[in-house]
Amino acid sequence: MITEICRITEESLKKAKEILFNHGLIGMPTETVYGLAAVGTDPEAVKKIYEVKGRPSDNPLIAHIHKGYDIEKLVYVEQDYVRLLKEKFMPGPLTMVFKSRGVICPEAVCGGETLAVRMPSHEGCARLLEYVNVPLVAPSANISKHTSPVTAEHVFADLNGKIPLILDGGRCLAGIESTVLDVTGSVPRILRAGVITKEMIEDLVGGCEIAEHKEGDKVRSPGVKYRHYRPKCDAVLYSETEVGKAEERYYKETADGRRAFIMAESKICAALRERGVKNLLDLGATGEEIAHNLYEKLLEGERKADIIIAIDLGRTDGVFLGVENRLRKSCG
């Protein structure tokens, strides 16, 4: 199979629709990461997602819809606070988990009774969703457990020869996957942290919990059960109080002839640079910058390094909660 990367035009949208409506898969951009998309009511196509990615069969998918699509065609909206969340954060990097009406095929929800739904704010993705006018289910467009792709080229590197088309919508802005929020109860619960933060949700609806995922729990959200986001090179994680140990590890690895890179926030990188450390992956200074840069730097690291020596951020407020989750799963 030949894999094409195409800018989003009327012609490429027509090609994408033809592929999707013939049980095929495409790579599509969103504001978070690139997705591997199939029509959500097509069991044959959904099964291909799991086969192409090597994805565990109990890891459910998110349904993507455009702004004009009636969400209640797919799910039961039972809580009043959902209206506030929808008005404030949709379209955007928020996924909400509802009781499903059973429209999306069982393969996509792994036989469960709930469905995760979101409306991407990426302009190109919105054009695609409006053009096909059906829900598209999509996990990240990569091999399972590898670092998520934030450019069309990242998708191509993992899925070349496995899918026919990647729609190129440029670099993803958010950089980490959407916040997943369980809205089936009286208080919303974060199943997976992202750039829509606990504090933002609390300010809007008055309360928000963070779910504790336990052994044997039914999986309602992707990204909570398995080790994810790993680069193909070695990766280790040191705490924010172990910068000296990380630096020692860097020089030891270098002395052993290995290409070592330290990945850290800007302040730490600046201090290490002054002390003569040359190979640095600078994540940025703010939570938003670090979220935007994390996967890009992990993928840059796997191209350049034999080992990434990551330094923890030491914060879990705001966007840092989601960033820390990804950092620990990728390097911890």
Report a brief summary of the structure:
With about 325 residues, the chain is of the alpha/beta class. Helix content is about 35%, strand content about 20%. It has helices at about 10-20, 45-55, 80-90, 105-110, 125-130, 150-160, 200-205, 245-255, 265-275, 285-305, 320-330; strands at about 5, 25-30, 35-40, 60-65, 75, 95-100, 115-120, 135-140, 165-170, 180, 190, 210, 235-240, 260-265, 280, 305-310.
Folded structure, characterized:
The protein is of the alpha/beta class and 332 residues long. The protein folds into two domains: 4-210, DHBP synthase (Alpha-Beta Complex); 234-331, Rossmann fold (3-Layer(aba) Sandwich), CATH 3.40.50. It is built from eleven helices and 16 strands. It has helices at residues 10-20, 43-53, 81-89, 106-109, 123-132, 152-159, 198-205, 243-255, 266-274, 287-304, 320-331; strands at residues 4-7, 26-28, 35-39, 62-64, 75-76, 94-100, 114-118, 136-138, 165-168, 179-182, 189-192, 209-210, 234-238, 260-264, 280-282, 307-311. The strands form two sheets. Strands 1, 2, 3, 4, 5, 6, 7, 8, 9, 10, 11 and 12 form a twelve-stranded mixed sheet that branches. Strands 13-16-14-15 form a four-stranded parallel sheet, with helices on both faces. Helix 9 (266-274) links the parallel strand 14 and strand 15. Helix 1 (10-20) packs across helix 5 and helix 10 (287-304) packs parallel to helix 11. The radius of gyration is 20 Å and the shape is globular.
